[in-house]
Amino acid sequence: MTPLNHQEFRRQGHMIIDMLADYYRDIEKYPVRSQVEPGYLRQLIPEDAPDYPEPIETILQDVQRDIVPGLTHWQSPNYFAYFPSSGSIAGFLGEMLSTGFNVVGFNWMASPAATELESIVMDWLGRMLRLPESFLFSGNGGGVIHGTTCEAILCTLVAARDQMLDRVGRDNILRLVVYASDQTHCALQKAAQVAGIHPDNVRVLQTTKLAAFALSPHSLRSAIISDKEAGMIPLFLCATVGTTSSTAVDPVEALCDVAKDYGIWVHVDAAYAGSACICPEFRHFINGLEGATSFSLNAHKWFFTNLDCCCLWTKDPSALVKALSTNPEYLRNGATNSKRVVDYKDWQIALSRRFRAMKLWLVLRSYGVSNLRSFIRRHIEMAKHFEQLIATDKRFEVVVPRNFSTVCFRVSPSAIPKRFYQNSNGHAGHDQNLGYQNGNGSARYDQNVSYQNGTDGARCGQNHSYQSINGGARYDQNVSHQNGNGGAKRDQDLSYQNGNANHDQTLLHQNGGANDKKLQDNEIVNALNSKLLESLNGSGRVFMTHAIVGGVYIIRFAVGASLTEERHVNMAWEVIQQYADAILSTS
């Protein structure tokens, strides 16, 4: 047999397309979140690889029998978790073409079409977003397609770091400071660690419910001034349009004005919400972008381009190239030497790269700007509809303002019977079996206050040192909090280890029993909503995830799956009410 026989490729390819078409036809039959237990697959698959070939028919039978039950179905119309990974026919077929050609376009010569198409579609999308001309190739900026936002933030941070160290000297790396809010994605935390920024030099600035959890320009300026007075060097700000926890929007223009005064590189992360900005009515969310240095969005989230496709633009491509370029003898060629081409290997961490532009090109051409806007508007209208459904039931409340297609809600404290707030020893506890659980039901929190803000197990807190552990976060904190009644303080010594999400706390209260009771009541409300979410997800009928903002546990309802229709939103609401009825009446 030959590994790439065109006739066999045609035969097997048709079989897989047919299988996937049936999968999409029947996708509502599957539980949205996989119901398997850890380690299930090792019991089903042989210990060693086969010595001899097996027919594709047998392999596909095993896929259906063994693999599909272990999938969480991100394309299900009943998927409302995290953020969407909205696929499309064009996105899939573009990925198919890219995989079929299998080119490794690290520089222009390695595949000229791959490089040039990427530059063209990035300018196309940039114009759709009405990005400042300085972010486009036509304005001496430019765009590149990475795999994820994690890569985009790391590359821009490394570029900013080297640019600054060239000015102040390499031995000053421990003085560099990075700024973010407590709602910023943990990708920044990981990027800072990889880039060699000292953990103590990541300033995570507190947000408030009053400001809709947006980063305050005043807080940023105060932190910068404090750092400069201490002899530190402000380096990098990551502002967010559409935070992971609640889709909060940082005030880009005002933050850029502050950063400009101190020569700080501003990266705007619009991984989820950036796609909506192709609609004129949402473009204002990125007003002020001309003051930023770089901007990114994930087309694989809400732009119908199959994973992976993170679009990054920068005003200063030379900073990326200077920080990330390599030019060994075996890669030298006339085109590169001519300085007339882009070598995208110098805009990213890895050398090799995929032909991702192909699928984005197919999406843009197959649907056109008008239809892409309609798809996004339809999702936002469905989110508005879900909000209206919540308003019809006084037991529920929307916790934070909805900006896009994600609604953050919970069972309201006023709807919880008084018996939930009492137990035999007179204080809030977990005798109701209402432990906090994360999105996959595995992590439990035994604590009076939870300060986690992400949906993926990572939290950023103000002036906290932290270290990534297996994709989570560890926090060593000694924080003094000022409360709202007469200046009394609550001092905390908190050591947070991600691991299995166990949290040990020592809480020293100096403000009397009233505040303790408030904290205990809040824990009961949070725990009940956590139990509701786990019940919903355990049913297999829907899948949602959670976050904690301002100490409040919220259930996130993110509309954006390509197959979702209003009937699925209505069904999800019915399921939510059904399980809330059961918990409130029996727990």
Characterize the biggest β-sheet.
7 strands, mixed
Number of helices: 14
Instruction: Kindly provide the name of the CATH class of the domain at 103-327 and 338-367.
Output: Alpha Beta
Instruction: Give the name of the CATH superfamily of the domain at 103-327 and 338-367.
Output: Type I PLP-dependent aspartate aminotransferase-like (Major domain)
Mean pLDDT: 86
At CATH level 2, the architecture of the domain at 103-327 and 338-367 is 3-Layer(aba) Sandwich
Q: What is the share of helical residues?
A: 25-40%
The CATH topology annotation of the domain at 103-327 and 338-367 reads as Aspartate Aminotransferase, domain 2
Low-confidence stretches: 424-510
Strand order, biggest sheet? Answer: 1-7-6-5-4-2-3
Strand runs, count: 17
Shape estimate: globular
Distance N terminus to C terminus?
A: 62 Å
Going by helix content, strand content and strand pairing, the class is alpha+beta
Beta-strand content bin: 15-25%
Q: What is the radius of gyration computed over CA atoms, rounded to a whole number of angstroms?
A: 25 Å
Tell me what you see in this structure.
- With 587 residues, this protein is α+β, with helices and mostly antiparallel strands.
- The protein has a domain at 103-327 and 338-367: Type I PLP-dependent aspartate aminotransferase-like (Major domain) (Aspartate Aminotransferase, domain 2), CATH 3.40.640.10.
- 36% of the residues lie in helices and 15% in strands.
- The protein has 14 helices and 17 strands.
- The protein has helices at 6-25, 56-67, 89-101, 112-128, 149-168, 187-194, 217-229, 252-261, 299-302, 317-324, 334-337, 357-391, 513-538, 566-586, and strands at residues 142-146, 176-181, 202-205, 233-240, 265-269, 294-298, 310-314, 396-398, 406-411, 436-437, 444-445, 465-467, 474-482, 489-496, 503-509, 545-549, 552-558.
- The protein has a seven-stranded mixed sheet with strand order 1-7-6-5-4-2-3, sandwiched between helices.
- A hairpin with a 6-residue loop joins strand 10 and strand 11 (444-445).
- The protein starts with 5 loop residues before the first helix and ends with a helix.
- Residues 424-510 have low confidence and may be disordered.
